[in-house]
């Protein structure tokens, strides 16, 4: 009996031992699986954010990195922000980011015209508008003085694209000293991460730079990617602005500006406006902050300047006129030199009370034949959607002199319409008829 009980106890001990062994094996397997999971988690790369999360540019407007070009560097991003905005933590506001080069309806009254209702980017849009008009009226036409305003209403969609590409490449080629130019586009899969010393804007960090040494190649490249400057969400005006700066180069821009601390945009609460240096860069290819002709070696006090001031050195393709009621009343209206007042083509960007618009003639000989200046037509486009027709003005510089008291009323704008005063900075004393249109600017 004792022997039987001893045998049963021995059997129970063996079973217990086997159960303990099985449990230890199971725990080892669990621990092994946990370790493998931990290793997998350590080895797995962190999840990457998608393009939609990183970049506000629609996917269809982002190019493939396989297109070539050179990716932007952190140093270039810093330089772009400093030369434009004056600081590495400043980025473009909403009004700038939404600005593009978008035409009004093709084959219509405003088939030649860009939409430019407001914001700091409007000045850039209006300079490009002036170059578009120059291209449509004079560059692509076989005859100069045979064109009328009607020819600008017969512009189709493809002609609009070609005119925009030509206008953008004109400014870039001038900025590159007619030797080379750079176009910046946004790529879909290259990204520079944010650093402690800059602010991420999910756009500039994706720039890809394409440099060309022939103007036709630039125009064709822009035309092939024209949607990147036109379509909603493309940041088209900023892209062109970056292209302009890269074409000029940061080093040459610093030489153009009088002060090493100068920058191209004037920042004020809620907006960023173009400084004169940026307008001159768009018009002439050089970012001089001055409007006078040539160089100035002496100051207003007659004493030699430590550093000569550079004005406008040659005639531009499109001109520039400026008038401000506030500046006139303060006696501080700057004089625009003849290099800008008398361009190669009769198209002018007008800065009127700090708002840009375009004035033009369809007669190229207006700038070369003094007899043509006796009586002539000018056309005016302000860029705003509220303008329902291109204004036609008749300018008479010969028969009689304009008198300030010719209009009654106490409102200075009614007595001296700002657009008329702007025109008189070029044709002093001219009498201007609005041909049934109520005066505006």
Please tell me about this protein's structure.
The chain has 441 residues and is α+β, with helices and mostly antiparallel strands. The protein is 37% helix and 15% strand. It is built from 15 helices and 13 strands. The chain has helices at residues 2-43, 51-54, 74-85, 94-98, 122-139, 157-175, 215-224, 227-230, 236-248, 250-256, 276-284, 325-329, 338-341, 412-415, 418-424, and strands at residues 70-71, 181-186, 207-212, 265-268, 271-274, 295-298, 304-310, 319-323, 347-352, 355-360, 375-381, 391-396, 431-433. A 6-stranded mixed beta sheet has the order 8-9-10-11-12-13. Strands 1-3-2 form a 3-stranded antiparallel beta sheet. It has a two-stranded antiparallel ribbon with strand order 4-5. The longest helix has 42 residues, at 2-43. It is globular. It starts with a helix and ends in an 8-residue tail after the last strand. Residues 1-7 and 24-54 have low confidence and may be disordered.
Please summarize what this structure is.
The protein has 441 residues and is of the alpha+beta class. The protein is built from 15 helices and 13 strands.
Keywords for this structure?
441 residues; alpha+beta; six-stranded mixed beta sheet; three-stranded antiparallel beta sheet; 15 helices; 15% strand; globular; disordered N terminus
Give the secondary structure arrangement, pairings included:
Elements: H1 2-43, H2 51-54, E1 70-71, H3 74-85, H4 94-98, H5 122-139, H6 157-175, E2 181-186, E3 207-212, H7 215-224, H8 227-230, H9 236-248, H10 250-256, E4 265-268, E5 271-274, H11 276-284, E6 295-298, E7 304-310, E8 319-323, H12 325-329, H13 338-341, E9 347-352, E10 355-360, E11 375-381, E12 391-396, H14 412-415, H15 418-424, E13 431-433
Parallel strand pairs: 8-9
Antiparallel strand pairs: 1-3, 2-3, 4-5, 6-7, 9-10, 10-11, 11-12, 12-13
Helix pairs in contact: 5-6, 6-7, 6-9, 6-11
